[in-house]
Amino acid sequence: xxxxxxxxxxxxxxxxxxxxxxxxxxxxxxxxxxxxxxxxxxxxxxxxxxxxxxxxxxxxxxxxxxxxxxxxxxxxxxxxxxxxxxxxxxxxxxxxxxxxxxxxxxxxxxxxxxxxxxxxxxxxxxxxxxxxxxxxxxxxxxxxxxxxxxxxxxxxxxxxxxxxxxxxxxxxxxxxxxxxxxxxxxxxxxxxxxxxxxxxxxxxxxxxxxxxxxxxxxxxxxxxxxxxxxxxxxxxxxxxxxxxxxxxxxxxxxxxxxxxxxxxxxxxxxxxxxxxxxxxxxxxxxxxxxxxxxxxxxxxxxxxxxxxxxxxxxxxxxxxxxxxxxxxxxxxxxxxxxxxxxxxxxxxxxxxxxxxxxxxxxxxxxxxxxxxxxxx
Length: 376
Prior knowledge:
With about 375 residues, this protein is mainly beta. Helices cover about 15% and strands about 50% of the residues. The protein folds into two domains: about 1-160, no CATH class; about 170-375, Lipocalin (Beta Barrel), CATH 2.40.128.
């Protein structure tokens, strides 16, 4: 039985490897042999790295070992457990080792798979692969790529680091947060002007969403996203002298001249269900998250709560006081609409538009909420 206890590999200098009076084809064969030997040593290193013996063991077995040295620093140390194996090992050479690999070449592509791992589900993962194309030889070891170029007068060897891109899973779950600003459109499709008591002030009319999402991969760069979440609407009025109160049959906006108003708003919370189809052009073109992403789809939600809040100070002087009223009776219990997303890199913007009104029919102004924001 053979056991590798030490393995150190460095590329030879170009002058040591290729500047020899050989033909082009012979140089190609020499390079191929060395490349395959490197692959073999890499396989051994991967397979035995986790079971290296201690230094004491190494010292005790050096008497039954073979040391293969090449160049100035390349070295492979192989030890054996029996005299018989030791004698056989001494008779082997590099060519025999390569022949023992029993490599099969794909005549159409020139690819040779040296090592592959068979998984439980029947699929395979290539660990070492060689591709030959006349004057070029490529060797893939894990994620590392070694390119041997013999097209010129001198042979060039280039080592490229592995590709650390994660494999795109067919199904994944994730959590994200929406942060945006709210407004609404009136029956004419316009934002209410300042002369309306319910006109919204952009800064402070926050929309916060907590979403638990899942993504099903339909094809390369094409996904079906769906999930559940919570949305919190805040509509901060531009005119802080008006307060939204619960009237007998509808919501009323009354002007408070008896106090000095600081803040006036209506808020509501919903549990939401969302589904979208997404196109990721970056993944379609193998550029990861560096490409453009677009997504769109419907959503629907059920209202959990709603209230109006008015913060004021008495004219005669006092600390700030708050007046809260339950205005949920006049808010629609259900909301539904469409959502769109546009992203590039790690930044994603979203927009939502409610197809139904914020307030119930004839219980308040006819307003359709709209939101713009960013996804974290």
